[in-house]
């Protein structure tokens, strides 16, 4: 077993841990991904998937990670190898993954055509054909809070950041998933907002660590924190680059790559992206993308639900 | 239309698509020269496997098969002349699927090749395919030397007429030879009905031999025809492919349906059709299969994948039914556990399980049926199919058999087109 690539931050953690008794502790293990908390409080993602990021180590292994790694195992680096009980992976052949940072430095605000925006929403719609009740309920809350936020920002033009921060804080930890849907939405929103907001002379928004780690689990909180600071994986960077370079065809493609990720993570991130995109574009050009997004969210979350005889929310049965 | 009702429309359409696919009832009803039985087929037209392609972009085996077909039709005397004619634009090339026809590997059908005719008893469609030439150096793998042409001539002059007389005898008693029961039974006898037709060929011969014997044709011809078909484990392939085409055609052109109704390769490109998107091709470069090689050959000899035969997987069998055919792994590679795993994996991207095609080893579970582009994009799993492997140069033929995984690009492109056509 060997590592094929290591992101910059992960490599830095490995270098720092040389001579230490351990690199960190395995927190969670899934079939293809494990999460490691390092001694300096960083998150490293060890994965058998090809997706790269500054905090990811990509492992050349086809089996189930659960059979070789256990939660709470201490992991260390010795003799060029990542080691823990019953698990060894060589670091020698690993290539350093470096982010192409030019897309993070946006100099012109995007202007998305309404047709493209609608197409991306249509793809999301197709993706949501089997959404769970929990997810739909989560997005009812997200939609409601987002609408409140929009109304507030219209009234308080000088205090946009607070309204948005307030909105995002309310959805952290909300919804299903190891990384809750609310976390993914917030991360997606802030990734776009913080990249482009300086162009509108708006300050970047940062959800504080105290809020993150009290509202959601440590791994998800760390991921939100990285993403809000512009540290993301290559799929997110691809969307950003397409936005920045106004590549119409590639933009839809990049969203499709994003949407198909995980159970709902990709959809949630994409929702956050679209919320930020529509908000920024409407603010800059007085367009009406946010209303289209809200309409989409309302249609997707309300029409398929009804209150059953027992008072519980249910999905409409299929014919 | 509100977004939630689009989902309901898709659900209804997909249900209709897969129901039609499963309820289709193809019968073998006729055989004759392609130009007589396939509407639109004519002299100086060759139809081929996969999406549309022009001579300049054709792979070695596709070019070899085109050269062979031109020699067979006597439109040229030598391979060089045949190549010149193919380049000249005087011969037109079109995909088989545009004619409701299918052919394995290069799939080239020329005007005087005997074409099998199937009729879907349930939905009325007619579909077409070719008689199988056997394995090794054959036209469909790009072979075009004398041995190949002589065999094609014999198929035209002896095997075709024997089968034509046979089907006439069949039709004195019934509407035709029902193929779905043969395929269904073959799945219970160790075939997956794409790269393994051992049982299906035997069952088919058992069905038609009594009628062959009633034809009063020359005894030698009958014996030669029987021996040729009996020795060739792929005799049933053409019939199975035309049957699968009938099934998938029945599922095609259903508004709002996200079910794939064609998956096909021409040795350069691979392409799909989606029911709700009509005859629009979504293509990507054809991948090279991973396989088991004939003696003296290796992966470096292999051409990218080709053939209309992925119609079998499109209809829910072939690679999707590998768990029914553990012995197939000796032919295409992999392991028995891989075969079982593949069937289970394909279920993740299919809309339903087949009502009539079942797998004894999986407690008679239906085979994964109706590839749904939404599920492919969502899961990141693309169809895995069984295939033959052609040499990359024209004139050499088959060099192995194996497994090929379809690229994601065309499914994504199809989903984007679907969103654009039916979107918000």
Structural Rg of chain A: 20 Å
**Coarse structural class of chain A:** alpha+beta
Which residues of chain A sit in consecutive blocks of at least 5 with pLDDT less than 50?
none
SS strand fraction of chain B: 15-25%
Which term fits the overall shape of chain A?
globular
Q: Largest sheet of chain A, if any? A: 9 strands, mixed
Percent helix of chain A? 40-55%
Number of strands of chain A: 11
How much β-strand is present in the residues of chain A?
15-25%
Fill in the CATH topology of the largest domain in chain B: Enterococcus faecalis V583 fold
- Based on CA atoms alone, the radius of gyration of chain B comes out at 20 Å
Structural class of chain B: alpha+beta
Number of domains of chain A: 2
Count of domain modules of chain B? 2
Major beta-sheet overview of chain B:
4 strands, antiparallel
Helix-strand sequence of chain A: EHEEEEEEEEHHHHHHHHHHEE
CATH architecture of the largest domain in chain B: Alpha-Beta Complex
Describe the structure.
The complex is a heterodimer of chains A (319) and B (424). Chain A contains 11 helices and 11 strands. Chain A is of the alpha+beta class and 319 residues long. Chain A has 2 domains: 96 residues, no CATH class; 215 residues, no CATH class. The longest helix of chain A is centred in the middle third of the chain and has 23 residues. Chain A starts with a strand and ends with a strand. Chain B is an alpha+beta fold and 424 residues long. Chain B is built from 14 helices and 15 strands. In chain B, the strands form 5 sheets. In chain B, strands 5-4-1-6 form a 4-stranded antiparallel β-sheet. In chain B, strands 9-8-7-11 form a 4-stranded antiparallel β-sheet. Chain B has a 3-stranded antiparallel β-sheet with strand order 10-15-14. The longest helix of chain B is centred in the middle third of the chain and has 28 residues. The model of chain B has no long low-confidence stretch (mean pLDDT 94). Chains A and B meet through helix 2, helix 9 and helix 11 of A and helix 1, helix 13 and helix 14 of B.
């Amino acid at each position: 077993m060997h590592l094929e690539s290591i992101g910059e931050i992960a490599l830095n953690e490995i270098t720092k841990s040389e001579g230490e008794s351990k690199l960190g502790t395995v927190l969670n293990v899934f079939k293809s991904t494990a999460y490691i908390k390092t001694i300096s409080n960083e998150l490293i993602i060890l994965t058998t998937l090809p997706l790269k990021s500054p905090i990811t180590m990509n492992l050349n292994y086809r089996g189930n990670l659960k059979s070789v790694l256990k939660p709470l195992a201490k992991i260390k680096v010795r003799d060029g190898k990542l080691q823990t009980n019953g698990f060894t992976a060589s670091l020698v052949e690993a290539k350093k993954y470096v982010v192409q940072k030019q897309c993070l430095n946006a100099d012109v605000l995007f202007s998305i055509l309404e047709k493209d925006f609608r197409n991306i929403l249509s793809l999301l719609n197709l993706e949501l054909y089997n959404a769970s009740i929990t997810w739909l309920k989560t997005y009812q809350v997200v939609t409601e809070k987002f609408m409140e936020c929009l109304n507030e920002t219209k009234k308080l033009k000088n205090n946009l950041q607070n309204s948005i921060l307030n909105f995002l804080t309310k959805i952290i930890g909300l919804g299903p998933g190891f990384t809750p849907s609310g976390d993914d939405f917030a991360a997606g929103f802030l990734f776009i907002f913080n990249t482009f907001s300086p162009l509108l002379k708006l300050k970047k928004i940062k959800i504080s660590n105290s809020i993150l780690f009290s509202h959601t689990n440590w791994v998800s909180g760390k991921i939100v924190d990285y993403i809000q600071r512009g540290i993301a994986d290559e799929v997110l960077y691809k969307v950003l680059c397409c936005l920045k370079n106004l590549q119409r065809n590639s933009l839809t493609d990049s969203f499709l790559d994003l949407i198909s990720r995980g159970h709902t993570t990709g959809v949630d991130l994409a929702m956050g992206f679209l919320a930020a995109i529509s908000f920024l574009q409407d603010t800059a050009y007085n367009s009406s993308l946010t209303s289209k997004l809200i309409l989409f969210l309302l249609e997707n979350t309300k029409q398929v639900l009804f209150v059953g005889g027992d008072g519980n929310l249910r999905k409409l049965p299929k014919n | 239309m509100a977004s939630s009702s689009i989902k309901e429309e898709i659900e209804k359409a997909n249900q209709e698509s897969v129901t039609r696919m499963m309820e289709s009832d193809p019968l073998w009803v006729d055989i004759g020269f392609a130009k007589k039985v396939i509407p639109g087929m004519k002299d100086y037209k060759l139809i081929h496997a996969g999406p549309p392609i022009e001579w300049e972009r054709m792979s070695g085996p596709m070019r070899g098969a085109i050269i062979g077909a031109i020699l067979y039709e006597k439109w040229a005397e030598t391979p060089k002349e045949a190549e010149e004619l193919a380049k000249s634009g005087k011969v037109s090339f079109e995909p088989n699927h545009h004619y409701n026809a299918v052919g394995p590997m290069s799939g080239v059908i020329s005007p005087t090749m005997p074409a099998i005719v199937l009729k879907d008893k349930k939905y009325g469609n007619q579909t077409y395919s070719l008689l199988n030439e056997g394995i090794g150096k054959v036209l469909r793998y790009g072979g075009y030397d004398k041995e190949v042409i002589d065999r094609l001539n014999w198929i035209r002059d002896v095997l075709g007429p024997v089968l034509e007389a046979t089907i006439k005898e069949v039709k004195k008693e019934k509407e035709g030879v029902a193929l779905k029961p043969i395929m269904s039974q073959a799945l219970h006898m160790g075939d997956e009905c794409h790269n393994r037709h051992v049982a299906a060929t035997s069952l088919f011969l058992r069905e038609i031999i009594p009628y062959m014997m009633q034809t009063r044709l020359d005894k030698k011809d009958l014996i030669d025809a029987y021996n040729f078909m009996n020795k060739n484990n792929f005799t049933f392939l053409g019939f199975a492919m035309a049957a699968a085409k009938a099934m998938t055609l029945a599922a095609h052109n259903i508004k709002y349906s996200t079910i794939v109704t064609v998956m096909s390769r021409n040795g350069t490109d691979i392409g799909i059709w989606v029911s709700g998107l009509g005859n629009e091709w979504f293509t990507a470069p054809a991948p090279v299969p991973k396989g088991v090689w004939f003696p003296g050959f290796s992966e470096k000899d292999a051409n990218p994948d080709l053939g209309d035969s992925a119609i079998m997987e499109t209809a829910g069998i072939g690679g999707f039914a590998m768990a029914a055919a553990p012995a197939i792994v000796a032919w295409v590679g992999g392991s028995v556990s891989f075969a079982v795993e593949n069937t289970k994996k394909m279920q993740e991207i299919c809309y339903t399980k087949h009502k009539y095609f079942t797998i004894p080893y999986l407690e008679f579970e239906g085979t994964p049926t109706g590839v749904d582009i939404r599920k492919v994009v969502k899961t990141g799993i693309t169809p895995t199919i069984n295939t033959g492997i052609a040499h990359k140069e024209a004139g050499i033929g088959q060099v192995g058999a194996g497994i090929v995984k379809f690229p994601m690009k065309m499914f994504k492109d199809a989903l984007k087109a679907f969103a654009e056509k039916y979107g918000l």
